[in-house]
Amino acid sequence: MISDRQNIQVSVAIVGGGLSGMSAAWELYQAGIDSLVVLEANDRIGGRTFNQLHPKIGYVEMGGTWVGRTQTAVLDLARQLGVATKQGKVDGATIYGYQGIWTMHEDNPSESATPAQKDFAQVMAKFEQLSQNVPLDAPWNTPNAETLDSISAGEWIDRNTETIEARAWMAGSIRQGIAGDPHQVSMLFVLYFMANAGFFDLRETAEDYRLVGGSHSLTLKIAEHLGDRVWLNTRVREISHGDRVRLVTKRGVIQADYAIVAMMPKDAGKIHFDPPLPAIHQQLISEWQQMSWIKFFCLYPRPLWWGKAASGHYYSMDTEAEVFDVSPDDGSYGLLIGFFEPKYSNLSEVERRKCAIQTVTDMFGAGAAPEEYFEIDYTQQSWTSGCVAALPPGLLTQAGAALNEPVGRIYWAGTERSTRWINYMDGAVRSGQHAARQILEQLI
Ligand SMILES: Cc1cc2nc3c(=O)[nH]c(=O)nc-3n(C[C@H](O)[C@H](O)[C@H](O)COP(=O)(O)OP(=O)(O)OC[C@H]3O[C@@H](n4cnc5c(N)ncnc54)[C@H](O)[C@@H]3O)c2cc1C
């Protein structure tokens, strides 16, 4: 029971202490706004970036892990906070498995390439070309936006491929990014997501670096500076807004000049707004889908697969599982990180462990007996509704314009609202900074 903090007044209240909310707070704090509070529902900050301590290997990153070299917002923030980077890239190109056969894609397949490889290269090129037409700050203005938003990415792939293998590879490539079935997701959204992240552009990857101490270090360092401006275990239940913003929590009521709601749109939908948000915002929040992975770890005494496996990154269309080798350079232990799709949530942990071991054995020849298996199922987290966002057909053209529109004194952040690297840590930092700057324009 905390009574000493009831009914305080601040200039800015930030709801959500993930990377986005903490970046917003940091931006404001550095601009001289020290009358602020971060209200975080969980008993820790970091949201989808957090470390779990491990007795043998120090820690593991349970959420966001890799950073790409064009993800300059998160890299700049790391530099500013004194968080160093280390090599993130795993060895070798991605190897895709389909019906038990493992293949490496070629962008420019030779004459002797299989029909499936040629088909995949042509559909990928077509996809990339379309994604280049998407204006990042207003994807709803893409040429033929309504048509592209009326079909799912899955339907588009079905129409634009001739071979079953290329269809599966293309669907698999999209699944890797959105953690779900391309048939559930708008084609326009997938084009926007890919353009926004440069996902299929080999010059722009998302896995060049990792952060020393883990991605959690970023929010932990910001929290050190903010001190008691960060309130944990403080879920915001209700926000009433008008001349000021009133945020109701179990620790009391916070009156603020401005608020930033920094979380997944779906999670924002669990807050009661009074008066209700305009219809377009309600639609955005209620129809936004969250897709969830199960992230798993297989720890071995050493990387038994080194010298045997063809690459450090495999994706299987058969099991819809992706695995990266993240063993340290000195080989002092072997660590594989994998991702299962949400349907694996229906299995027990024992069954998932069995599937994970079978998967890494098929991919890496890793051996059937890891020293340890552990996992996190994002469908089961209390305060976050999933891993990454994906929009169903129709939503982006109908309600997308509300993404970054403040409602009175309420501003929005969260990686889903970024116009660059949406769904990534970089997008979280950018969206937090953007919301903070919007408020600074009002305050200064
Ligand atoms: C398994 C996994 C792997 C990933 N891998 C990568 C990767 O390798 N590279 C990369 O760049 N990105 C990766 N990501 C994505 C990245 O982690 C996220 O994009 C980023 O962390 C999102 O930050 P955020 O602040 O926008 O949202 P969140 O981290 O979700 O933060 C929102 C916060 O709001 C809090 N909250 C919710 N409701 C309330 C409420 N009512 N009151 C108060 N607080 C509330 C939540 O507890 C949470 O702390 C991964 C994500 C997952 C889940």
Automatic annotation (TrEMBL):
Domain Amine oxidase residue range list: 19-440
Pfam families found in the cross-reference section: Amino_oxidase
Keywords recorded for this protein, A-Z: Oxidoreductase
Keyword Oxidoreductase tagged: yes
Keyword Oxidoreductase: yes
Alphabetized GO MF terms: oxidoreductase activity
Swiss-Prot/TrEMBL cofactor(s): FAD
Matching SUPFAM superfamilies: FAD-linked reductases, C-terminal domain (SSF54373), FAD/NAD(P)-binding domain (SSF51905)
Binding site residues for substrate: 339
Domain of life: Bacteria
Sequence positions that bind FAD: 20, 40-41, 236, 416
Family: Belongs to the flavin monoamine oxidase family.
PANTHER family: AMINE OXIDASE, AMINE OXIDASE [FLAVIN-CONTAINING] B
Protein name: Flavin-containing monoamine oxidase AofH
Taxonomic lineage: Bacteria, Bacillati, Cyanobacteriota, Cyanophyceae, Chroococcidiopsidales
Originating gene: aofH
